[in-house]
Design brief:
The chain is mainly beta. The protein has two domains: 92 residues, Lipocalin, CATH 2.40.128.280; 97 residues, Lipocalin, CATH 2.40.128.280. It is 3% helix and 49% strand. The protein has two helices and 17 strands. An eight-stranded antiparallel barrel has the order 10-11-12-13-14-15-16-17. An eight-stranded antiparallel barrel has the order 2-3-4-5-6-7-8-9. A hairpin with a 2-residue loop joins β5 and β6. The longest helix has 4 residues. It is elongated, with a radius of gyration of 19 Å. The two termini are 21 Å apart.
Amino acid sequence: MLGSSSRGNAILVLAVGFALMVLSGPASALSEADILGTWCGAKSNPNLTNYTITRNTLTVTYLPANTQRVFPITSFDFSGDVVTMNWKLADNDERWTKFGQFSPDGRSMMQLASEAGPRYDFYRCSPTAASAPAASLSHADILGKWCGSRNNPNITNYTFTRNQLTVQFLSNNTRKVFEIENFEFTDTIITMNWKLNANDRRWTKFEFLANRTILVQLANEAGPRYEFTRC
C-alpha cells in the first residue's frame, strides 16, 4: 500500500488494468498432499494461529502464547479447487472448514470466509519457524526482483535497489522508475519511503511470510494487499 505524506494513506495505482491469465489446460485436482503439513498464519489474520494438519488431527497453535489444541479430523472432501475438512470440536459437535485459493507452488492457501467468520491466509512453514524469533529485517531481505501473484488486483513485478523502485506492468510490459529515499526496518515490517515526483513523497509498508520467501505489500483503508515471490 502506497502512502502519501500530503494526502494521508493515499495509494498510487501501479497498474492501469487487469492482465488476463490464460491457462492452457485444466488445473490438477486437489489431494491430501496439498493440505497436509504445517501452515503459518499471516500476521494480518483476525487471530494469529498456525495449523498442523495430518490425516486424523488438526493441531492449532495460538500465538504468541504458543499454546496448542488438538481436534480430531473425520475426513476430507475434495471438490474442484476447494478442500473441505470435516472435524470435531467435541464428541457430539461436528464441524467443517473449507480451504481454497491454493497457490500453484503449494506454498499458500486460504481458509475461506463464511457466515461463521472471516477469511484466514496461511503459508507453508516448518513446525519451528512460527515460534522462533526472527532476525531483524535488512536491505538483503527486500532488494532484488519480486514477481507479483496472479491473485493480485493488478499484476506487476517490482525490482528494488537501494535508491530505485522499478515497476513492470505485465498487461503491456511497460516500466516506470521511482526514486527511493530510504528504507526503515523493524523486526517484522519494512517501510519504503519514495517519491512519485519531485514534490510528492510517498511510503509503502511490507511484511514477509513463509520464512521471508513471500513479500506482502500491506493493505490499508486506501486499497487491498499485494503478494510477491522472488523471481
